Automatic annotation (TrEMBL):
SUPFAM superfamilies: ARM repeat, RING/U-box. It catalyses: S-ubiquitinyl-[E2 ubiquitin-conjugating enzyme]-L-cysteine + [acceptor protein]-L-lysine = [E2 ubiquitin-conjugating enzyme]-L-cysteine + N(6)-ubiquitinyl-[acceptor protein]-L-lysine. It comes from Cynara cardunculus var. scolymus. Keywords: Repeat, Transferase, Ubl conjugation pathway. Pfam families: Arm, PUB10_N, U-box. It comes from the Eukaryota. Pathway: Protein modification; protein ubiquitination. GO terms for biological process: protein ubiquitination. InterPro entries: ARM-like (IPR011989), ARM-type_fold (IPR016024), Armadillo (IPR000225), PUB12-19-like_N (IPR057623), RING-Ubox_PUB (IPR045210), Ubox_domain (IPR003613), Znf_RING/FYVE/PHD (IPR013083). Its EC number is 2.3.2.27. It is an enzyme of class 2 (transferase). This is RING-type E3 ubiquitin transferase. The keyword Repeat applies.
Length: 626
């Protein structure tokens, strides 16, 4: 067999596996089997590379096996892409057919790999061991039944819409769950879903499309549902595609208008006047992100990625969109360049603020205090000028006193009002100077889960300096945050993780967090099969692991296998964090590497060395050296 042909063929195989390894974002119904299959193939890359480099004359059997493997890898790529970028509705409703296709490609890939006589190839023993490991994994995967019970409700709800058509009446809460689980809440997602369904019709050449037509109707019901919930959706065009205007998520009422979430600064939650892009690609209001960076923060506030530089690039395209939207909706707080009337808190509004503060101070009359707190909370949602006026009028000390009430509704209004007021920098200073921190922490310990969640966000908002971080820690503000991380809703857990990340930038707060049991809680989030908090938990553990108390708990709890799995299954940032934690633990206790070896850590580190980020590669290399 010609030398050049086998080299080219092996390179084609390697390239195809790399393409497969880059596929991500699988739909929940197929996430586990598809992710596992891609991982098994990715581990084989060093094996294929060594065959390419050392094999000069291939036998006919090897050439035929590799040719067949390349064909089946292409089929595998198409299947995995369907589970990632294909129609979500189709994948859920046709999950049994898709899993049959999965079993077919797994069997074909295993057969191709077994046709390669590893023992006759001039490759290293380590690479042969890798190949043998993958073959055993393929053998175990053949016929394995993956648990899909977690998606049964989603399947049943979609099936109901599929069969009942326009006569099907689904509970709005259930419908909302379907839409959010499928990720069809935004305009782009709905359009992609429509395109994906249309591509199935094209691929079938017009045959067997009755079920796809019904799926289009399911998509139309979703569009109608979003429309009735004030997320503007255009009618379908005549070509079978569903076109929508931009969806609105996490909106804020703004004088009876709604501001698209992408126009709001993630830090200040205000309409952006001068949007800029940082090195990680996220957009913020210039003043907000400058304040964040000048406070000594070297990470992105939303993703927690490290900033490679502090250059701020104007986002002119987004600014133009904001300007146009403000013109259309006659919004006053518009970026410069829009002709508007400067808005300030007028005398009538100031008069009402004074009335509400006096009601708030009627501690002997729960009804008056509740009404005052509720009205002030409603005002804090209006705009920045109103929030500043409320702070100037002296409402903050009265709101802090209201946190101590036994009336849960009043307490909730007071905490939510303080949360909104803390967006304003001057109000942050007023809140701290009024001695709010211990009162906020007490309310978090005694109040409802919503009060605890709002309190966590306030603590994060206030914790801009080490002095404030120490103050929060000294008043045992870590305790309710760990509780929220363990028991809270998904939103509450994320709020708690964000606050803890900021507070644990000083070592004494790490010790406090360990004392209140944060490490086992974070480990539990890592061990959970699918947890939306996995990324936050891993980043927080990585940030804390340099503290000896954290290392000792980790060595005792020993989540070694899960950390090693994340080297393969996680994002590049997860790989960095997992490798960093493993490296710190191996430095603390050299015997720790013996346990890691039992889970074949070397194979996973080699994968990170090939495909990880630069920082991930560096840490993987340090571990391999050890």
């Amino acid at each position: 067999m010609a030398e050049g042909r086998i080299t080219m063929l092996m390179q084609d195989v390697i390239n195809k596996v790399k393409e497969i390894s880059e596929i991500s974002g699988y739909i929940s119904v197929v996430r586990k089997p598809f992710f596992s299959l891609a991982g098994r193939l990715t581990i084989m890359i060093p094996f294929f590379q060594e065959i390419r480099d050392v094999t000069k004359h291939a036998s006919r059997n090897l050439y035929e096996a590799m040719t067949s493997l390349l064909d089946h890898l292409e089929a595998t790529k198409k299947l995995l892409q369907q589970g990632s970028k294909g129609s979500k509705i189709y994948v859920v409703l046709e999950r049994e057919e898709i899993m049959r296709e999965y079993e077919t490609v797994v069997a074909e890939l295993e057969e191709d790999l077994r046709r390669i006589c590893f023992e006759k190839l001039d490759v290293s023993d380590e690479v042969k061991e890798q190949a043998d490991l993958v073959l055993r994994q393929f053998d175990r995967a053949r016929g394995k039944q993956f648990d899909t019970s977690a998606d049964d409700d989603l399947y049943e709800d979609l099936l109901f819409l599929y069969h009942k058509g326009s006569n099907g009446v689904l509970d709005p809460e259930v419908f909302n769950g379907v839409v959010e689980t499928l990720g069809l809440t935004k305009a782009t997602a709905l359009e992609q879903e429509s395109v994906a369904l249309s591509e199935i019709v094209i691929a079938r050449g017009g045959d067997r499309v009755e079920n796809i037509e019904k799926m289009f109707m399911v998509l139309k019901h979703i569009k109608d549902f979003l429309h009735t919930n004030n997320q503007s959706v255009d009618s379908s065009s005549g070509d079978g595609y569903v076109y929508v205007r931009q969806g609105i998520a996490n909106v804020i009422n703004y004088d009876n208008e709604v501001i698209p979430n992408e126009f709001l600064c993630p830090i200040s939650l205000q309409l952006m006047q001068d949007p800029v892009v940082i090195s990680t690609g996220q957009t913020f209001e210039r003043l907000s992100i400058q304040t964040w960076i000048q406070a000594g923060n070297g990470t992105c506030p939303t993703t927690r990625q490290f900033l490679t530089n502090t250059t701020l690039i104007p986002n002119y395209a987004l600014r133009d969109l904001i300007v146009e939207w403000c013109k259309t909706n006659r919004i006053l707080d518009a970026p410069k360049g829009v002709s508007t009337i400067a808005y300030s808190c007028n005398p009538v509004e100031r008069k009402f603020i004074g009335i509400y503060i006096r009601q708030l101070e009627c501690v002997e009359h729960n009804g008056h205090q509740r009404k005052g707190a509720g009205e002030i909370y409603q005002l804090t949602k209006r705009n920045a000028q109103i929030r500043e006026a409320i702070g100037e009028a002296g409402a903050i000390p009265s709101l802090i006193k209201a946190l101590q009430t036994t009336d849960p509704e009043t307490q909730g209004y007071a905490m939510s009002a303080l949360l909104n007021l803390s967006i304003c920098p001057r109000n942050k200073r007023r809140i701290v100077e009024a001695g709010a921190i211990p009162k906020i922490i007490d309310a978090m310990n005694s109040g409802s889960m919503k009060v605890c969640e709002d309190g966590a966000t306030i603590l994060f908002s206030l914790s801009e300096t080490d002095e404030i971080r120490f103050l929060i820690g000294s008043h045992e503000g870590i305790r309710p945050l760990v509780f929220l991380l363990r028991e809270g809703s998904e939103r509450g857990q994320k709020d708690a993780a964000t606050a803890l990340f900021s507070l644990c930038l000083i070592p004494c707060n790490i010790a406090r967090a360990v004392k209140f049991g944060v490490v086992p809680v974070l480990i539990a989030r890592l061990l959970k099969g699918y947890s939306p908090l996995k990324d936050d938990a891993l980043a927080l553990l990585d940030m804390m692991v340099s503290h000896r108390d954290v290392k000792l708990v980790l060595l005792k709890e020993s989540p070694t296998q899960r950390l090693i799995q994340l080297l393969l299954e996680g994002s590049r940032k997860n790989q960095e964090n997992a490798a960093s934690i493993l490296l710190q633990l191996s430095v603390e206790d050299p015997k720790y590497l013996d346990e890691a070896q039992r889970f074949r850590i070397v194979n996973y580190l080699m994968y990170v060395e090939c495909f990880g980020s630069e920082e991930g590669k560096r840490k993987a290399n340090l571990l391999l050296q050890r």
